[in-house]
Amino acid sequence: MRVKVSICTGTTCYLMGGAHLLTFDEMLDPCTAQDVEIVGSHCLGLCNNEENGRPPFVKVNDHIIADATLNKVLDTVRAELGLEV
Ligand code: FES
Fold it and tell me: For residues 40-56, b (16+ Cβ closer than 10 Å) or e, as one string?
């Protein structure tokens, strides 16, 4: 896998909109999907410090996405894969 996507499923992120992020795999075309590993993660430890931004949080490789949306995650994954965003 070239890109690892960790979707926080901790309570804060889940309640702040993270639940629908778990459908992220549906946004990937089959070619892209084979290079992407998607995992649910316990609290990433980011939600208790305002400097990290607002939940929900998603990690794409080493990039932290605050206030994550499906489109933000997709753009970051595509950038990591060297695809046009
Ligand atoms: S619940 Fe997501 S970072 Fe804590």
Answer: eeebbebbeeeeeeebb
> Domain total for the chain?
1
- Give the model confidence (pLDDT) of 14-24 as tens digits: 999 899 999 99
12 Cα: distance to centroid of ligand 1 (angstroms):
6
Q: How far out from the chain centre does Cα 10 lie?
A: 13
Residue 85 lies in a domain: no
Q: For residue 53, what are the domain limits?
A: 3-80
Percentage, residues of the chain above pLDDT 90 = 89
Q: Is residue 53 part of a domain?
A: yes
Query: Best substitution site from 7, 46, 52 to test ligand 1's pocket, by max atoms within 8 Å of Cβ?
Result: 46
Please give the model's pTM, rounded to 2 decimal places: 0.93
